[in-house]
Amino acid sequence: MFMEKIVFEVISKFDWRISLTEARYNHVCKRHPEVFGEVDKMKETLSSPQVVRKSMYDEKVLLFYHFFKNTTVTEKYLMVAARILNVEGFVVTSYFTDKIKMGVEIWGEK
Asked: Residue 82 and residue 94: Cα distance in Å, rounded?
């Protein structure tokens, strides 16, 4: 049986195990080259988000946001989208953004 190589596995804010495979990481970096090498920021965003929203397009996908002062593209939010199935999930995409996108907020730092 073929096992995909895992770049990381992290326990999210909600105690879900979320992983990023090498194939998905390569796909994300091809579409969003600014996140290449930002694995630690991705892990921090999943484990210590400032805002979590439900995707407007897929109810099983949550959007985790964390603001970073120093990134490859000045100060921005890092958004990490993860598809959650039961209590496990996997990273779908990630990119830096100026603002938090629309969607129902399910958790936010107070």
From this structure: 9
Q: Is residue 1 part of a domain?
A: no
Q: Which residues contact 27 (CB under 8 A, 6 or more apart)?
A: none
Range of the domain at 45: 6-99
Q: How many residues does the chain have?
A: 110
pLDDT per residue as tens digits for the range 87-105: 899 999 999 999 998 889 9
Tally of domains within the chain: 1
End-to-end CA distance of the chain: 45
pTM exceeds 0.85: yes
DSSP 101: P
Alpha carbon separation from 52 to 31, 44, 48, 109 (Å, rounded): 22, 13, 10, 9
